[in-house]
Write a structure and sequence with these properties.
Blueprint lengths: L1 E6 L4 H12 L4 E7 L4 E6 L3 H10 L3 E4 L4 H4 L2 H8 L3 H29 L11 H18 L1 H12 L5 H29 L2 H8 L4 H25 L1 H9 L3 E6 L2 E6 L8 E4 L8 E6 L2 E4 L1 H4 L5 E3 L4 E2 L4 E2 L4 E7 L5 H13 L6 H28 L4 H14 L2 H6 L2 H13 L2 E3 L2 H7 L4 E5 H5 L5 E7 L5 H12 L5 H12 L8 E6 L3 E6 L2 E6 L1 H4 L7 H12 L3 E7 L2 E9 L6 H10 L3 E5 L4 H11 L3 E3 L7 H9 L4 E5 L5 H6 L2 E4 L13 E3 L6 H35 L3 H4 L5 H20 L30 E8 L4 H12 L4 E7 L4 E6 L5 H9 L4 E5 L1
Parallel strand pairs: 15-22, 15-24, 22-23, 24-25, 25-26
Antiparallel strand pairs: 1-3, 1-4, 2-3, 5-6, 5-7, 7-13, 8-11, 8-13, 9-10, 9-12, 14-26, 16-21, 17-18, 18-19, 19-20, 20-21, 27-29, 27-30, 28-29
Helix pairs in contact: 1-14, 5-6, 5-10, 6-8, 6-10, 7-8, 8-9, 8-10, 8-15, 10-30, 11-13, 11-17, 13-17, 14-15, 15-28, 15-30, 17-28, 18-28, 20-21, 28-30
Amino acid sequence: MEQYTVTGMSCAACTARVEKAVSKVPGVVSCSVSLLTNSMGVEGSAAPQDIISAVTNAGYGAALKKQGEAQSRAASEDEDALADKETPVLKRRLIASLGFLIVLMYVSMGHMMWGWPMPSWFDGNHVAMGLVQLLLTVIVMVINQKFFISGFKSLWHRSPNMDALVALGATAAFGYSTFALFAMTDAQVRGDADAVMSYMHEFYFESAAMILALITLGKMLEARSKGKTTDALKGLMKLAPKTAVIVKDGTEISVPVEQVKKGDIFVVRPGESIPIDGIISEGNSAVDESALTGESIPVDKTEGSPVSAGTLNQSGFIRCEATRVGEDTTLSQIIQMVSDAAATKAPIAKVADKVSGVFVPAVIGIAVLTTIVWLLVGQSFGFAIARGISVLVISCPCALGLATPVAVMVGNGMGARNGVLFKTAASLEMTGRTQIVALDKTGTITQGEPQVTDILPADGCSEKELSELAYSLERKSEHPLARAVNMKAEADGIAAKEVSDFKALPGNGLTASLDGETLYGGSYSFISTKVNVSDDIKKRSEQLAEKGKTPLFFSKGKKLCGIIAVADVIKQDSPQAIQELRDMGIHVVMLTGDNERTAKAIGQQAGVDRVIAGVLPDGKESVIRELKQQGKVIMVGDGINDAPALTSADIGIAIGAGTDVAIDAADVVLMKSRLSDVPAAIRLSRATLRNIHQNLFWAFIYNIMGIPLAAGVFIHILGWQLNPMFAAAAMSLSSFCVVTNALRLNLFKMHDAGKAHKTAQNKIIITKKEQITMKKTMKIEGMMCGHCEATVKKTLEAIAGVKQAVVSHESGTAVVTLETDVDSAVLKKAVEDQEYTVTDIT
């Protein structure tokens, strides 16, 4: 996506005009314009000069942002790009306008209505008073000339915007008042005192000036609030240090961060921010990463640990090697991701965009029609023109245009501060609409690597002796289960003895010699052929297996020493996170390649609604497609092996991204491996959606009620009549209210489960469970030929719930595709009834 800076936009009608113009350029696939950040994102093959030309022809300005602009420039320039430059300008305009407006109001209303004193040379000279009002109004109009330049320019380009409404309203009030002044002058020359007083009451000079002052006030409040919506992004930019201390030829040199190259050695002292991504080559420290991940507890770092730009070195002196610089740092990628999301549009904004595209022309038409109707029913021209002006100045397309982007920007910023990165506005919206969450087991629900959970020594053997024997045997093995045993022993300070004749028997276990005796380690089926296993030990191993743990048996000589159980343990926060998802009415599904027994044990501990076992990595995508038939699906995985499933889901969430935030397959990136961030992301999305709905409701209801009120529809019904000045005040506050409401999101606590709107468990989910496919692989002995294959295939496919069986006598396997949960015992019995032996089912 190419990003452009767009200038000259003032309301939603402007963004609609720019989008329409750019979308017509050949080669443009999509275009999204943000009024909030005055930016535009364009996808396609169109040349930048053609896009800029289209924007210019539409009456606006455009410039291409340089590649990596948000990262490669100095931090001060980045902050300057987002600095609130509008508010100071508008504030100066407002102060100047109010100075002259106060004098104008004193002359026009203070003296006329309440008899406030005036200089003696005004006595009886109504023309002089009118000329003073005209002069003061002209000064206010000149101060606020931007409304007229932008408004009439948009009319010239046949794309009227909000400024056009203000310009037309103020011009109409000023024009009619000027006409009344000349008519009054003629009446005074003729000596017609009654006509003079009549025309005096037809002056709307103060209305014209008040409209401009009040709209300027509203614009200033709006600009001030809009500036606060980018506070999160500006806060991230401020994290990036401007300089780094690198080591060259043994000397420490302070240089701008842009000059640091990959491979340079840089040093960071306690209390300093880390300037760029790197790996610690010397020293250790505790690093505060809360600015990037939202994790308040400092992370201990030692030699070989990665560090990220923008994090704070709290305790020790560290020397690091730069690994990622410039726009490749984690901080830069986060800034770019938040910026890109702000440049995109949420689907919910399409309705407001369509309305905005025709809103201003429709309002101008209604204002003209209102004036004509009041003239036709016999009202004076002054009364009729006042109603038309009120219609022009009360209408507010800005509120419609800002309703969605301000909420998206604030929601995105809050997510970024808490380590939850939404790549687009659409992903922020869709996350909250989910009905099903599919969780990959390994690394998402569980830690992702085996750990020792139980040490059960046999009679005559102590726990220390069992651990020592297991460590001595396993430390020469590269198997993941062996690493778990070794890590546990090292943590407990167990010393290993040197063994000889070590052998790893694939699929069985390990064997070695120690002190003239043979050591064995492995599964029950392996150990039971070497030593006698008591019924009590066997029963305890079965209980461990039922809990999803892998029991490893160890023996020395002819004596069984005990069992060490290993499992990929559930993360501490997983059950709570899953319960929070269920409390939100979301159906939680666990996907795993484990066998059915292990999968069900882990699923039960985690508290998921459904377990789909036997799913191979390439089969997750098909499961997600089936789940999508039941509702909106979020897939949560590590972003690497789960890439196809993440892409296939309505929303893909990559968990535990750490410093690798640029995961292409994911729509949402969680920097931490904390499953509780998934319900937090959904809560934030739902809160943002509610905020958008509130904003859109206010924007629509304001215009739906305000325009008829301004047109005078309720004058004869309820006696309500709206002065143009009050109409301008209402318009000035409408956008301010929308932006202020969006800023309330900053107070939202996304990790507070009490903020979730609890609903009954979603009943529409998985009404067709039998359509969800899963696979089981059976190892079968005794098949000798194609006839055997056909017999096993026919037998398996005759079982209810079996969709397909692919049988091979050469490999001795049968891969069974299931439509429903079919117990492994049923499959085994059916095959063994045909005189074959089933040795394993996974």
